[in-house]
Amino acid sequence: MDLGLKGRRALVTGGSRGIGFATVRKLASEGANVRFCARTQSDIDRAVDACRDLPGQVTGGACNVSDSESLAQFILETADMLDGLDIVVPNVSGGATPGQAGWQSAVQTDLMGTVTTCEVALPLIADTGGGAITVISSISGLEQTGGVSAYGTVKSALISYAAQLSETAVTQHVRVNSVSPGPIYIEDGFWGQVKRQNPEMYNAVEARHGSARLGTADEVANVVAFLSSEAASWVTGTNVKVDGGFTKGIQF
């Protein structure tokens, strides 16, 4: 299916690895020109090199998403470099650090990083005639996962924020949705670490999936690309689970 993304201009935060990197590659494979940010230049260089064979042009830049001023400047520079913005994917997460540091990281990086990205990018997308913002959340924001969690609390907030923003953004021809991945296996990510260090836990989570496996970053990226395209022109204000049936709740 041709998603009609050729020549579209996209920004992805946290695009050097994991779901962010898979999203960069998917958008570029559909012909979009993509710029992403990450904190480490070596990670940026590696990711850019890995995308050189794709139809769309991929570039990257260093930026700490928890620094709102730096993030805003990066977004403005990206719009200038790409001559506008059509697609934005706020993806960066501070992870699940315990204690007060974890709460501060989750709020400043996940929540405020997304809010800043959307506030700066929305008028830029509107100026180009409209487009899409797809916020990356998690099923941890949809159900209790055992105890109090900054990570899950903020992921819930992201889903709510995206839904609220969609109501005003649609009047500017910008669709806003969120995507909530379930357990996704990434070798150098959280579930890759669990598989190496706690195989019993990994196997138990794997067994909870009807397909007896965890998801892949590419499977999440495919959904993000669809929501970012005109193929999803009548989809806004929704949250899409990408979890292989892991969560059992019924969405209304």
Question: How is this structure best described in words?
Answer:
The chain has 252 residues and is of the alpha/beta class. The radius of gyration is 17 Å and the shape is globular. A 7-stranded parallel sheet has the order 3-2-1-4-5-6-7, sandwiched between helices. The two termini are 29 Å apart. Helix 5 links the parallel strand 5 and strand 6 (174-181). The longest helix has 29 residues, at 99-127. The chain is 46% helix and 15% strand.
Topology diagram in text:
Blueprint: E1 9-13, H1 18-29, E2 33-38, H2 41-49, E3 58-62, H3 68-82, E4 87-89, H4 99-127, E5 131-136, H5 150-169, E6 174-181, H6 190-197, H7 199-208, H8 217-228, E7 239-242
Parallel strand pairs: 1-2, 1-4, 2-3, 4-5, 5-6, 6-7
Helix pairs in contact: 1-8, 3-4, 4-5, 6-7
Question: How would you summarize this macromolecular structure in one to three sentences?
Answer:
This protein is of the alpha/beta class. The chain is 46% helix and 15% strand. It has helices spanning 18-29, 41-49, 68-82, 99-127, 150-169, 190-197, 199-208, 217-228, and strands spanning 9-13, 33-38, 58-62, 87-89, 131-136, 174-181, 239-242.
